[in-house]
Amino acid sequence: xxxNYGDIYSTVKDGFDRDEKVMISDSVLKTQREHLGLKVExxxxxxxxxxxxxxxxxxxxxxxxxxxxxxxxxxxxxRAGNTDYYNVFCLxxxxxxxxxxxxxxxxxxxxxxxxxxxxxxNPKDEFETELILHDRLLEVCSYEDRxxxxxxxxxxxxxxxxxxxxxxxxxxxxxxxxRAMQLLLHRxxxxxxxxxxxxxxxxxxxxxxxxxxxxxxxxDPTWNDAEDRINHSYFNLTTAEILLSHQIDEDNIGIDxxxxxxxxxxxxKGRMLATLKREDIARVIxxxxxxxxxxxxxxxxxxxxxxxxxxxxxxxxxxxxxNVHLKERGLKMWNYKDYNVNEIYCTLTLxxxx
Length: 354
Hints:
4-stranded antiparallel beta sheet
């Protein structure tokens, strides 16, 4: 499999500036259609359709930079004895060579801008690197909600499913968010892959599995972008936690069970609160205001969540108690009109009103 993977990778790289026509057969509809794409000669013939599917999935999931490869593919081969062998792989392009060159340059420019911002922030570890890139991605990208109103969204909005859509065009669905997150982390030397599954309504969904400081975590950037307002409810969760709101497809490749909490956003940032004392909550919020934060994201235990939610809903009381801690610094609690509530993970997120 590794040898054939390398064949595809090198052929895509070498054929980047070249347009070819490939014939894609549909074994179900018994049709053939010509596409813009390329043929890959495999060093080791595949012996089953399942192997072909695994090879395609592994390559596409590992390489978000090849956003111009479509979700249609085919394979050709021969029969020897009673065994079928597949030694030619056909991939389809969604763009011409000229379009690929222009779009790839725009994507690289968007990544370079992200990395300039990352360098300026000077993160001290992998967690901070992940957090900066995550928050910046959510700042530049909005959910492409038009896909829900059409029968074939991939045909009408193909880039919405890609890192290009998220980082360059600023509109993507969950797959685009996840591929963009993967690409940004890869460029920073952090392992990241894709996870496919479903949400609580049994709708197909995609998110990331990231490796931070040697431990794996689930990260869902799409669901952290609630109506274009950043939160971190789905930032570095264990498998047990993600399963409270997600279903994981059984055919995911290389998805390990995640058990570590050490890089969870709320634990690492000191925002996991197990107190019913409003003074303690006010002190944490005051520290965030002093730090210059415009978004204050807190997580509570099940036993303290209801009380904290009641406190935060009372803006006058919260402001008064937070200002007690800010008075000596000549600061005041900023106004907040809306706040995000996640009842599954007991998180509350305050947003500075502009």
